[in-house]
Specification:
Order of helices and strands: HEEEHEHHEEH
Strand content: 15-25%
Number of domains: 1
Structural class: alpha+beta
Distance between the termini: 33 Å
CATH topology: Glutaredoxin
CATH architecture: 3-Layer(aba) Sandwich
Largest sheet: 4 strands, mixed
Strand order of the largest sheet: 4-3-5-6
CATH superfamily: Glutaredoxin
Number of strands: 6
Helix content: 25-40%
Amino acid sequence: MKHLSHIVQAAVLCATLLAAPGALASQGALCPATLNHTFPRLQDEKPQSLCQYSGKVVLIVNTASYCGFTGQYKGLEELYSRYKDKGLVVLGFPSNDFSQETGSNQQIAEFCENTFGVKFPMFAKSSVKGADASPLFRQLAQMSGTAPRWNFHKYLLGRDGQLVDQYSSLTAPDSRGLLRAIEQQLAVPAPR
């Protein structure tokens, strides 16, 4: 009887994992709910699971090519380059919700690379606010109590996938408060 109980428990665990695609990260750790989403990559629209960033400190930013804050791409790339080997990843999500991202995914990719040398992961254009917001941005707005009010709104997740804080477009990538929060999160050991 005890043996049957273990078989049932194992079956329930397997069914649970199969019911949640991408629930396991590449490192074998469970994927936090905030990262359990799949988006097409900007450059080629191949589906990418955000679970691959489990265990990292994640800065999620909604972006646009024709905005007064577009220059933040440079600072975001510098931030990514400076801290990526310590466990930071910046994720960019272009959006036309504020009527400042009118190009195709290919045009956006070329603009980001050619103008700002963007190497951090970017995803296909999607909605970040309102009824059409992607599930990720709906989740972030619910967790923080704040949906993006403009382009280059930022959400910082700790290594455990939990929301640390959110930052308005006015917060530059090199702002003292954001850098301090990132460094504090990078000092936390990755979950096993």
